[in-house]
Amino acid sequence: NYVDCLMNILYILHFIFLYSTMVLTRTSMNTFHSSVYWDTIARYNGTSDSEKEHLLTKTYHILYWINADRYYWNSGDSQNLAEAFFAMGNVASICRICFLLPIIGFVGPLQVNIYSTGQKYKNTLFLIFFYDAK
User: Cα(129)–Cα(116) distance, rounded to whole angstroms?
Assistant: First the structure.
């Protein structure tokens, strides 16, 4: 079934992007805690311009992955994409049962709602009748 395949693909993409976010965050934390990185930062003024640019880019990258404030995230951030794929996977999983809803063609999903509402009223009247009969 196409919907099942779509749902599985979306969930797999969710886990891939989520895992990549975890790896990038852990790598940034390890780099941030390493003494080699801080020794390089200490020698910043004595480095060439290209090395300074590389060090600034590396620092921005590290701070981007350590920062947990969503305000500063890019819209294409892998955590955002993972959550979007998870939400789309949930929608696809609901779509798997959509063929059950139109029991009668002209009523469609309304029939399921009417049936469940009728059951609720029946149960409520049953409880009122037996609890008030004391």
Answer: 20
Q: In 3-state terms, what secondary structure has residue 64?
A: helix
- Name the H helices within the chain: 2-33, 35-42, 49-66, 78-95, 109-132
17 and 66 share a domain? Answer: yes
| Per-residue pLDDT tens over the stretch 38-85 | 999 999 999 999 999 999 999 999 988 888 777 778 888 888 899 999
> Are 92 and 36 found together in one domain?
yes
State the Cα–Cα distance between residues 14 and 8, nearest whole angstrom.
10
Separation CA 96–CA 31 (nearest Å)? 44
Residue (of 19, 2, 1, 27) closest to 85 by Cα position: 19
Record the tokens describing residue 132, joined without a space.
């008030």
Q: Both tokens of residue 26?
A: 């852990």
| Full residue range of the structural domain in which residue 13 is found | 2-100
Residue 55: closest CA among 42, 41, 66 = 41
